[in-house]
Amino acid sequence: MAQEGKPALGWAARDASGLLSPYSFSRRVQKEDDVTIKVLFCGICHTDLHVAKNEWGNAMYPTVPGHEIVGVVTGVGSGVRSFKAGETVGVGSFVGSCRACESCGKGYENYCPALLLTCNGVDYDGATTQGGFADVLVVNQDYVLRVPEGLPPAGAAPLLCAGVTVYSPMVQYGLDAPGMRLGVVGLGGLGHMAVKFGKAFG
């Protein structure tokens, strides 16, 4: 007999209107390398709007958006050693990859052909992945990040998409050293983060 997953309540888009309404569903069964998280905060990214309104033509309704997730660990599988109940953690745009291809080997899981998106993807059990506009999340430990003490959880959530989107290339191209010049076009969700990182880098 198959085990039942963790009951969850989220806000789902059911059609291209993009309107969200309450949606009861089940998260996958927690595996030995999974972390179960009580969601406290989830930022909203423009990608969430694209998915909810099917603007990219690939929405799998009903779909629960959200990939800037911060919460508290409520359970861990037997193989999890890096996290424990009560810790504040975050989850970003994806929750799985093959970990065997060249891209994964170089730390570029976002280019993996088997990339598993946090929402609107197909999970390993065949179910549609549902995002963080929900009360609970079950995710592989390798895609969970610890939120440092002293960093407000509500402020940490946008760092998991908008933040990393600008931080990563700044570091990759050496713009994380004092005295470097940085040009930022626009001061929206990404631009204002780039300015903040630039100031912090000196």
TrEMBL record:
Xref: InterPro entries: ADH-like_N (IPR013154), ADH_Zn_CS (IPR002328), CAD-like (IPR047109), GroES-like_sf (IPR011032)
Cofactor(s) this protein requires: Zn(2+)
Cross-referenced Pfam families: ADH_N
Catalytic activity: (E)-cinnamyl alcohol + NADP(+) = (E)-cinnamaldehyde + NADPH + H(+); (E)-coniferol + NADP(+) = (E)-coniferaldehyde + NADPH + H(+); (E)-4-coumaroyl alcohol + NADP(+) = (E)-4-coumaraldehyde + NADPH + H(+); (E)-caffeyl alcohol + NADP(+) = (E)-caffeyl aldehyde + NADPH + H(+)
EC number in record: 1.1.1.195
GO BP, sorted A to Z: lignin biosynthetic process
Alphabetized GO MF terms: cinnamyl-alcohol dehydrogenase activity; zinc ion binding
Record key words, sorted: Lignin biosynthesis, Metal-binding, NADP, Oxidoreductase, Zinc
Matching SUPFAM superfamilies: GroES-like
Transmembrane segments: none
UniProt pathway annotation: Aromatic compound metabolism; phenylpropanoid biosynthesis
Name of this protein: cinnamyl-alcohol dehydrogenase
